[in-house]
Design a protein that fits this description.
The protein is mainly alpha-helical. The protein is about 70% helix and about 5% strand. Strands 1-2 form a two-stranded antiparallel ribbon.
């Protein structure tokens, strides 16, 4: 089977899993670990760059990082917290579902277009870097927002 098709199916499965996890997470209070650990876990995927087939040129790195950071803006805008029952919860956002699905569709379209000009290994490396460059700013913004509410909830003043 074609690698592009297989990886696209994997992306759809991962996107569906992300939606499920996000919806479930909104039902429980959040904490710092739940916010900062996912990028650390994902960073282990960077080991793919040990294999020469996945290595990127500086231009490909720049493109992936810029697109990832631009996509992160959408995630940042739809991720808000609220204080409920003396705990901090991630607010449910109907827009988040549409944005996540939209990002997945854009990713699949880009993969389909770029797979004819870029080797599948490099393309995989680019999409990993794009996802990582999207998740890190999003989680940093979530952390800052969470800490602001945490200080408010516990009456902690910044010096």
């Amino acid at each position: 089977m074609n690698y592009v098709v297989v990886s696209s199916i994997g992306a759809v499965i991962m996107g569906s899993l992300a939606l499920f996890v996000r919806m479930k997470a909104a039902k429980k209070p959040t904490n710092v670990k739940k916010i900062i650990l996912p990028p650390f876990f994902m960073s282990t995927g960077a080991l793919m760059y040990v294999v020469p087939e996945f290595r990127l040129t500086p231009m490909e790195i720049g493109e992936a990082v810029i697109v990832g950071m631009l996509f992160s803006i959408l995630l940042i805008k739809t991720s808000n917290f609220e204080i409920r029952d003396n705990d901090i919860y991630l607010k449910r956002s109907k827009a988040f579902i549409f944005i996540l699905v939209g990002l997945l569709v854009v990713r699949l379209i880009l993969k389909g277009i770029l797979s004819s000009t870029i080797d599948i290994g490099q393309l995989s490396g680019m999409f990993f870097l794009l996802a990582f460059s999207m998740i890190v700013p999003w989680r940093v913004a979530m952390y800052r927002s969470y800490m602001k509410l945490y200080r408010e909830l516990h009456n902690i003043k910044m010096v």
